[in-house]
C-alpha cells in the first residue's frame, strides 16, 4: 500500500502573499493548508506595527500564531491571516473599532471563519484595569 505523502509546512512565496491580499478569501481559506507567513508579512498586510498583531488576535480577528520551535523561535501565521489582516485594515480605515469587526469578518467570509480565528479575549487595557481594580 502506498503511503500518502504529507504536505510539509512551508512559508508562502511573495506571490502567494500578494494573492492572499487581492483574491477572494474563500480560495485562500480552502487552498494551501500548511502554508505560513511571518508576523512581519501579516502586519504589512494590515498596515500595522508587528506588536499590534497581539491586539488583533485578542480581538478574535486573526488566528493565534504558532511558533517555529527551536532557537530563533518566530511566530508563523496561516496564509489566510494575510487575507483577514487586509480586510481588517480596510474596515479600520473606514472607522470601525476592533470590537465591531469580528461580526463583519463573519459576514464577509462566512461562519466557518470563526473556527479558524482565535477566541476573543479582553484587550490589554481592559485586563490591566481589572488587575488594578482587584488590587
From TrEMBL:
Residues 41-102 form the HTH merR-type domain. InterPro entries: DNA-bd_dom_put_sf, MerR-type_HTH_dom. SUPFAM superfamilies: Putative DNA-binding domain. It comes from the Bacteria. This is HTH merR-type domain-containing protein. It comes from Nannocystis bainbridge.
